[in-house]
Amino acid sequence: MNPTYYYQEVTCLPDHEISIGFVLGKVMDEIHLALVESAAGTQDCRIGLSFPEYREASQEDVMTDASQKTTHDELQGPPIGSKIRVFARSDDDLLQLNLSNRLSRLLDYVHLTSVRKLERKINRYAVYKRCQTKSSRDRLIRRQMKRKGLDQATAQAEYATFKPRYSQLPYVNMRSHSTAQRFRLYIERSMAEAGEDWCFSTYGLSGTTAVPEF
């Protein structure tokens, strides 16, 4: 017997002044903060995300910064899409998340549904997991400091002309709340079978737990 699912859907609305990619990043920032609080320091939470408009990125997508307003973004939208579905197996979990309050500052740019019970039969499930690129400049600098015992200034100088190789996976532009630095949250989707496990990171992603696709 399939488990019961509840969900809310967030849609980023087209706007002449702000790109969909920028708004999506702001939405994900707020969802991440809400999940950190709901997990209460455990790093595991009962809320999972899906991206219904997810598509494989083209080379043009890879070279486009989704935080900036571009003709490409306006016409096609970022590869990650303009929608986020927020899933739980209890309506209480979604009500406690209180997305309407979390996203109140963005309501001119997003549409948020009420909490809905998923009534339809689901035949497709997918895993959405985070993938971290190995060519991050900051990550390489930290690695050099640890391996070679270099101070930060010396390690940074070694990578002064470093040009990162971007993953071709769809991503969301986000901001680290500990360092205030921007980063790309790369997300990989793969089809999977539904399972009993229901555990996600504070980004609403998992390498093993599948969410409904419809």
Automatic annotation (TrEMBL):
Keywords from the UniProt entry: Endonuclease, Hydrolase, Nuclease
Domain of life the protein comes from: Bacteria
EC number(s) recorded for this UniProt protein: 3.1.-.-
A Gene Ontology molecular function term of the record: endonuclease activity
Keyword Nuclease assigned: yes
GO biological process terms on file: maintenance of CRISPR repeat elements
Entry-linked Pfam families: Cas_Csy4
NCBIfam families assigned to the protein according to its UniProt record, in alphabetical order: cas_Csy4
Name the record gives this protein: CRISPR-associated endonuclease Cas6/Csy4
Lineage of origin: Bacteria, Pseudomonadati, Planctomycetota, Planctomycetia, Pirellulales
Name of the gene this protein is made from: cas6f
